[in-house]
Write a structure and sequence with these properties.
single chain; 10-stranded mixed sheet; two-stranded parallel ribbon; 10 helices
Length: 482
């Protein structure tokens, strides 16, 4: 692997330190500890397989067999491939250099998603701030569809739990810009708001700012400068790690929110004291932040109350819920950053991620919000070949050997594979080939170690093993938006 020519984003203070309370959850196994204490793999330690080996069918491996060991090794290897191909992609270096020349050298997210590349070309973008109930001012950013006059659009509050005050901006912790941009392109107005740790009250203040108008401003006299573009009747909330716990708490108590998407909640999050009321999507990683991609002789047994049991709690409350566990994913799959993320508590090397995790996350996030927030107004994908592509419920319940459609790929502009022929025909940046998942069977990108499952329409559509395959839900009545 080439020597890295750009720095990793160190987040020991910004995201994952004790001050932000954003560690990750771990699961125990029923095996003896001596069989599971091998060190995790890092990108510098292996040469990964071709990308197709991270998207091929692994079968139904049985613990204790050679096939299980082979699948387990493949899983560990593929959990580092995403970072490896970014490190080995000369187009990434070129994009980072171009961003610096454009005055955006501070941008920490995927370099192909820097604001000057996206804003005005694929959507609208504006940096802003909001003031919390204690008088502190916090950075935020607004993302939206290019046509501001075609709204009002459904909205999404994307909670960023970074502990970074002004004068820095959201661009300094832009590791979730991939989602904000994809949502904006799909017809949502997004407020990307820093809340300074896992602060539920501050997230509530961000929600108040997001929905405020000149006629109904916040307690601090502020209002959303894009208030005319926002349909305040249709709102969702998203968060990752510790912010996933914040999203679960706020989304379950604030009746303005119609849906929650929780990306790999941290161990600091809990459903204790939360009465599930809001349709919730849980996206979970195969590997924990603290352990990384370690060998497993058998499927892990989730700890009681851990994020791998949230589905059961929400389902038992009769609330629509879905759990998607992404194959070979780590906690970092939702936070791909220029140079990777370094968390010194766990390693001085950048923590790894898979190739396809971000795209799988994009696919299911869009489908969930289209189903429960946008409703019938959900923007259709660019794939006009199949009406199923534009049916959120159909996208959610596709399983087994059914394939992913193009609904996520149309938003894929980030760092991916490198094609030297394309680079020679254009320039170094032109050699970047964004990741796509259309045509890959659903089962191939779901974990074989943890379940992916759903309980929808109050149980009228349910599946306990999406990887094995279930009868898809179709022709269901759309969710009514009051």
């Amino acid at each position: 692997m080439r020597a890295r020519r750009w720095p990793a984003l160190a987040l020991s203070i910004a995201l994952f330190a004790a001050a932000c309370t954003a560690g990750d959850d771990s699961s125990s196994t029923t095996a003896d500890d001596s069989t599971t204490t091998s060190a995790p793999l890092f990108a510098d330690e292996i040469t990964g397989p071709p990308a197709r080996e991270c998207a091929d069918w692994l079968g139904e491996p049985v613990p204790g067999t050679a096939k299980w060991n082979q699948a387990d090794r493949n899983n560990q290897t593929c959990a580092v491939e995403g970072l490896r191909i970014m490190d080995d992609n000369p187009a990434v270096d070129a994009a980072v250099a171009a961003n610096a020349a454009a005055g955006e050298g501070h941008f920490s997210g995927d370099p192909f998603r820097a604001p000057h590349r996206w804003a005005g070309e694929r959507g609208r973008y504006e940096l802003t701030t909001y003031t919390d109930r204690e008088g502190n001012t916090w950075p935020a950013a607004l993302f939206g569809p290019s046509d501001a006059d075609a709204g009002p659009y459904p909205g999404v509050l994307l909670v960023c739990h970074a502990c970074i005050p002004l004068p820095q901006t959201t661009e300094h912790v832009a590791v979730w810009y991939w989602a904000a941009q994809a949502l904006a392109e799909a017809g949502y107005v997004v407020l990307y708001a820093m809340v300074g740790g896992n602060s539920v009250p501050r997230a509530e203040d961000a929600a108040a700012f997001f929905t405020a108008t000149p006629a109904a401003s916040t307690g601090q006299g502020e209002f959303n400068p894009w208030h005319r573009a926002l349909d305040r009747r249709r709102l969702g909330i998203i968060g990752h790690s510790g912010a996933a716990g914040v999203a679960l708490a706020v989304g379950s108590t604030d009746t303005r929110f119609d849906a929650i998407v929780a990306w790999d909640p941290a161990s600091s999050g809990t459903l204790s004291g939360v009465a599930p009321t809001t349709p919730t999507m849980l996206q979970l990683a195969d590997y924990s932040l603290s352990d990384g991609a370690v060998p497993r002789p058998e499927p892990p047994t989730p700890e009681p109350g851990s994020k791998y049991t949230y589905f059961d709690t929400i389902r038992d409350a009769g609330v629509d819920v879905m759990q998607v566990t992404v194959r070979a994913s780590t906690h970092i799959d939702w936070t791909r950053a220029t140079g990777g993320l370094v968390v010194p508590q766990f390693s001085d090397l950048p923590l790894t991620h898979s190739i396809y995790g971000e795209m799988v996350a994009t696919y299911y996030t869009l489908a969930w919000l289209d189903r429960y927030v946008a409703g019938e107004s959900a923007s259709p994908s660019d794939d006009s070949e199949s009406a199923a592509t534009d049916d959120p419920l159909r996208r959610l319940t596709a399983s087994g050997r059914e394939a992913f459609d193009t609904s996520a790929d149309v938003h894929s502009i980030g760092a991916g594979f490198y094609d030297p022929d394309a680079a020679r025909a254009a320039n170094a940046e032109g050699g970047n080939i964004p990741i796509e998942i259309a045509g890959i069977p659903i089962a191939n990108l779901l974990s074989f170690q943890y379940p992916s499952r759903y309980f929808l329409d109050r149980g009228a559509a349910r599946c306990n093993d999406m990887r094995a395959g279930c009868e898809p839900a179709a022709e269901a009545a759309p969710v009514e938006v009051p």
